[in-house]
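Hi Prof. W.,

I finally got the Glycosyltransferase RgtA/B/C/D-like domain-containing protein prediction working! I wasn't sure whether to trim anything, so I left the full sequence exactly as given:
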Amino acid sequence: MPIDETRYLAVAWEMHLNNSYIVPHLNGLPYSHKPPLLFWLINLDWWLFGVNERTLRAIPLLFSLLNILLIYRIGLQLWRDSRTARYAAIITASCLLYLIWSSLIMFDIVLTFWVLLGIYGLLKAGQAKNMKPWLLVGLGLGGGLLTKGPVILVHVLPVALLGFLWLPRSVQIKRWYGGLLLALGIGLGLVSLWLIPAVMTGGEGYRQDILWGQTVNRVVSSFAHRHPWWWYLPLVPVLLLPWILLRPVWSGFAMVRKDPGRCFPTVWALSSLAVLSLISGKQIYYLVPLIPAFSLLLARNITTFPADTSSSRWYYPPATLYILLGILVYLLRYLPLEGSSADILLFRTGLLALGLITTGLVFLVLRNREIEPLVTWTGLSSAALICLLLVSGDRFFQRYDIRDVARILKAREEQGYTLINKGKYYGQFQFTGRLTRPVLVAHRINDLRNYVENHEKSLLITYEPVDRAINQDEIFFQQLYRGKKLVLWNEQGMKKYLSR
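And this is what came out:
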């Protein structure tokens, strides 16, 4: 899916193509936005199975599975209760955002693994009489730094620094913070094994970006995804759908002070959320590593809810949600939607609406006094929803399918054409087309005109309004793409385009 997945695959492709395993590159230029661990994992996959797309999904899925196992271990460590630990694992695995991101070739699920490893190490360190658990914390910090940079500190350091709020009284605070310094040293030592060679060989611009631009600038004044401090607050309930609709998950928050096990995930969730809210750049998937913290709290609330209380009425809220969503999806076809909001109509809305309403009705049919079936079906309903989206969204996904474009670009590259992209280029064609040379990027029409006038065999890529009429004699190819029309202009078309 462009533009994120294709961009990261492009970086991994150029790493493979040019053997540039220390300094990542995108479209021929050093890429400082992310550290290299995910790109290394992609190249490891290609080394094992050959360059392909199909096996790459195993990377986030494997880390997602490891995350579920770690959440279970953390739940056991907190409460010595396998039922709570199992519910926490189920809740995390079936939160809609976690399910979606578990299949995407992006950083957040991998980062979540390192966060959980560090968190698990902190729990063990709070109960151990030696320093060995701090090695786990250090490994988690180092892996997180190599995966997505200093954001790992946002998820692990606050809960560690606030240890006096949740640690047993027998723990010596000075020894605790000494262990934390040791873990930080281990984490920084691990990342320096890559960072020092990278800044030495990447050039001055790369050195400035990796050490300053991608850390301080993102925190103080992000160049992308800027939102106010409160932006995450209304998204937390969305993050926990559909579980947030069950009454038992709201029942135990008053018990935080009486239950030391609840105190730890509360400090973890709230402190990390507070720090993330203060950072300028925000995206909803930045919260993915926090889903386990909330899941632990929700799971404990469910297991401690009075057993003699009938749970049959708890089925009504999720049933209502799915039925109302189904009705809304069905009615969308009759609304005058325009622009990007009309993309929902690319889904087979009738099929999606029927599936959603059926899911809601199953909740009503399965009403039971026991809580175990409720937990099971709530988890399965999330998986059912994801399957519905995949089955009904084939036309939507075609809008983002650039494989035909990439094949044409590859053929023209092999014929000696220079590929020129008008406007910002995200590397979306590099891996998909297995391109071996950078795409020329032209932002201004004068720069584009000067280049074309002095070079032969050029192919121009532009993104036009959907309603613009295109003469077929002037283009190689066109298709709908991300709310616009992607056009590959031939020589005749370029002359007319540049003469406007």
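The mean pLDDT is 87. Does that look reasonable to you?

Thanks,
D.
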